[in-house]
Amino acid sequence: MSFPVRQRLRAATHATHEALDAAFAGYDLGDGESYAAFLTAHARALLPIEDALGETAPWPRWSPRGPLLRADLAALGRAVPAPISIARLNGEAARWGTLYVIEGSRLGGAMLAERVADGLPRAYLAHKFAPGEWRDFMAALDDAATGEDWVDEAIMAAEAAFATFARAARVEDPA
Asked: Which superkingdom heads the taxonomic lineage of this protein's source (predicted)?
């Protein structure tokens, strides 16, 4: 690889990532109802993605956040929503690309947790990496790459994961 996979993923998915940020920008995490809708949207995307990764997640230190998200929704009196349909994660590169998105979401969630109003549950967003864990994840991602086709597959999977979250943000919340 001419430069780390993480840089290739970041550059290739920049526009999709920006669109995702825009899709979630309208949620006010300081407002209980808006925050509940934010978590509901995340659940629509994260839960099926984590289920697809399941036991086949390529990074052994991956810690699913679905249980924390479910607990936060329950604390807000919200049901777990129907999931967004996602494609199967065929191959290790696809699993790494998908993991890149949801682990990046964990990194961003720790910053968003500070915007959640006092008294609202925030276990999902506040679930941070241990010191050095993000760096270790990125090093493992770089080490996993086996060639250009692998990187292309990881990019396609990352794009699909970002798009899944963006679709989930646009679904009307019936609650």
From this structure: Bacteria
Helix pair angle (32-53, 148-170), 10° resolution: 150
How far, in Å, are 68, 117, 146, 168 from residue 151 at the CA level? Answer: 31, 40, 8, 26
Secondary-structure percent of the chain, ordered helix, strand, coil, rounded to 5: 65, 0, 35
- Write out the DSSP string of 82-126: PPPP-----SHHHHHHHHHHHHHHHHHHHHHGGGSPTTS--HHHH
Across the chain, how many H-helices and E-strands are there?
A: 8, 0
The answer to whether the beta carbons of residues 52 and 89 sit under 8 Å apart is yes
Token output for 76? 């807000």
What does the pLDDT look like over 129-155, one tens digit per residue? Answer: 999 999 999 999 999 999 999 999 999
Query: What CA–CA distance (Å, rounded) separates 134 from 6?
Result: 11
